[in-house]
Amino acid sequence: MSAHSSIHEEIKEQKQKTKDMSAKGKLAYFWYYYKVHTIVTIAVIAVVIMFVHQYVTSRDYAFYATMINADYSLLQDNQWGSEFEQYAGIDTEEYQAYIDTSMVFTDDDTSEYALANMDKLLAMLQSGTIDVIIADTENFESYAQYEYLMNLEEVLPEEVLTKYQDYFYYTDAATFTDMDDDKIYNAEEIANPADYVIDHSDPSTMEKPVVVGIYLPKDNKIMATGCYDYLEENGVTYQGYQSEAILGIPVSSTRVETVLSFLEFIEE
């Protein structure tokens, strides 16, 4: 008997079995014999629909901010992205604003999740996706040292600089990390930044001070959540001073005007 005949006979037999069954009985019979096939088919269809939905509804970023080492438990219900879209008049049919609160980095965390986050952050910095970085002093200074952050005096309007001049965060360009290949592989020639004592609010103590950040005032929208309060509560220090939350603009960002709107937004 050929394979074709065998299949034909099988179908004929199945029809004969169900001929006199009620609709309910036929459904039960079908589910008993074909439930695995049905579940797999439904799962495949669901995945296809999900990808099609994401493709159709996906929007480019008009603004992207990342908050590093913020207390996520205090930020889970925030609607900052959608609120900022409305505040800045962003066309939400084509674009979106996103505030990423998921980034967490610590010295002793070498998990795959932490490393994946680091790779993601660096890729986004290099591609120009991120417009604002907010981080604790240690992490913020590391980005400053690798020259990832703009000199704010070169990009912000005079009135904005005047408004935030008492909150400027300075880094010393004279201490920028030396990326010479020979020194990278010779740890003895690389100073540990944590060993320095540096007041990043005092440019007079630096050889080449550069304004790369703004200390976030306690009463703004972000700090009011308490998401960085743990720094002071736990006595977290870096380079001899209290660690604080600082905002900066990556050199790869091309949306400084939108960043200005964000600064106004978090003041309210």
Structure write-up:
By secondary structure, this protein is α/β, with parallel strands linked by helices. The protein has 2 domains: 3-55, no CATH class; 61-265, D-Maltodextrin-Binding Protein, domain 2. It is 43% helix and 15% strand. The strands form 2 sheets. Strands 2-1-3-8-5-4 form a 6-stranded mixed beta sheet. Strands 6-7 form a two-stranded antiparallel ribbon.
Task: Summarize the topology.
Blueprint (H helix, E strand, L loop, with lengths): L2 H16 L4 H35 L2 E8 L12 H9 L6 E6 L11 H16 L4 E5 H9 L6 H4 L2 H7 L3 E5 L8 H4 L24 E7 L13 H5 L3 E2 L2 E2 L2 E4 L7 H10 L3
Parallel strand pairs: 1-2, 1-3
Antiparallel strand pairs: 3-8, 4-5, 5-8, 6-7
Characteristics:
10 helices; globular; 8 strands; 268 residues; 2 domains; six-stranded mixed β-sheet; D-Maltodextrin-Binding Protein, domain 2; two-stranded antiparallel ribbon; alpha/beta
The gross shape turns out to be globular
Q: In the residues, how many domains can be counted?
A: 2
Give the assembly state of these chains: single chain
Largest sheet: 6 strands, mixed
Which band does the percent of strand residues land in? 5-15%
Question: What is the average per-residue confidence, as pLDDT, rounded to a whole number?
Answer: 81
Q: Could you give the distance between the termini?
A: 81 Å
Radius of gyration from the CA trace? 28 Å
* Helical percentage: 40-55%
- Give me the number of helical elements: 10
CATH architecture of the largest domain: 3-Layer(aba) Sandwich
- The low-confidence parts are 46-57, 181-187
N-to-C order of helices and strands: HHEHEHEHHHEHEHEEEH
Enumerate the strands of the largest sheet in spatial order, edge to edge or round the barrel: 2-1-3-8-5-4
Q: Structural class from helices and strands? A: alpha/beta
CATH class of the largest domain: Alpha Beta
For the secondary structure, the number of strands is: 8
- Stated plainly, the CATH topology of the largest domain is called D-Maltodextrin-Binding Protein, domain 2
